[in-house]
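Pipeline run #58 for the internal structure catalog. This entry was flagged by the ingest filter as a single-chain record with no existing model, so it goes straight to prediction. Upstream metadata was stripped on purpose; only the residue string is passed forward. Reviewer on rotation: M.T. Logging verbosity set to normal.
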Amino acid sequence: MSRHHLQPAQAVVLGFAVAIAVGTALLMLPIAKVGPGGASFVEALFTATSAVCVTGLIVVDTPVFWTGFGQVVILVLIQLGGLGIMIFAALIGVVLARKMSVRSRLNTAAEAKTLGLDDVRGLVRRIVLISVIIEAGAFILLFLRFLLGYGYTVGEAAWFALFHAVSAFNNAGFALYSDSLMGFVSDPFICLPICAAIILGGLGFPVIMQLRREFRRPLHWSMNTNLVLAVTAVLLVAGTVYITAIEWSNPETLGGLDPWSRVLAGFFQSVQTRTAGFNSVDVGAMHDETWLGMDVLMFIGGGPAGTAGGIKVTTFAVLFFILVTELRGEGAVNIFGKRLSRAVHRQAITVVLLAVAAVIAGTALIMFLSGENLDRSLFETVSAFATVGMSTGITASLPESAQVVLVVLMFLGRIGPLTLGSALALRERRILYELPKERPAIG
């Protein structure tokens, strides 16, 4: 009898599902909730999914509803989700057994988006090391600021710094303040370290590892690294200008701040659209035009094989260059002096079409189930699917059925439409023939 093995994509999906199930069970324990009784199933499921999928959307107030135990569970789930379930499993295997099976290498390579199986164990170690170093750097800066600038005790400063450093690098957006980070809107010593951790996490581990090796040799950078860095920089600047300009005179957001603080707040919110989810101003009070621009930025997201969500900046860039090539009438898509593989064309189009379908279906369902208008429903849907975590303030008030829709969107967005589709496919079919070619009219 032949043994059935899960395909790598299926293992990734199952790993995240199991982590969410365990997290839900732990958060339903009475010890995890303040006051008598435990959290309801939907409250625990939503929070666990949001943490594992590093989203940050919440249906209950994190610092008020959850006990210290519950907050620790959330923090662990964030770290698990940010690293990746298969990568974490591989790390345990390396530590305990000092070796990795071929199946474990396949699963880890699939989640890390690496092309080969050479030295996967070393890859896992480098990913963990990068995470620890960046989180430690953010932790030290935040710890000193909380301790010296706000009079926190050493224990309080350490806990708040640790939680927000991990949440920031993993692009999770969970905060231990009921108003997220609005109390620090004008404080660069809080906002900038968090932004730096978010940006680095959003670049993706392959980019960070290549920059660590070849920072002074940009000619050796891969197409992936060049695309991620270029598009990230453009979107950060464009997002900052767009948000700051539209909200500049809005008295409920940036209007009441001094000019420097307005720029800082605009930059901070632009960084959050990289799929982080903190907010230093009231997102629900922003103009509709700002929401629409943030919808686009959130949908694009960050870099692949990292802690960010969205369709990924590389997917967006690939479609942009395909468009430019088609408008020029050229045959091959060339990016940074290299020709783009045609297989990537199909992958990019598939990811975007599935993502658009998920967002449209999710928005329609939330509008139908909750009665909310299009602007707020679309923002909430994109935020969930792109694993961002920013909200216009309606998440907690949505009916449970609509919250379950957001749970599904967060899971789909973190796993990736293409990975989930591959995991659900029963088998790959190899076609041994080709049909006649024909061109329909386009446009």
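catalog note: Residues 8-418 form one domain.
catalog note: The longest strand covers residues 334-335.
status: ready for reviewer M.T.
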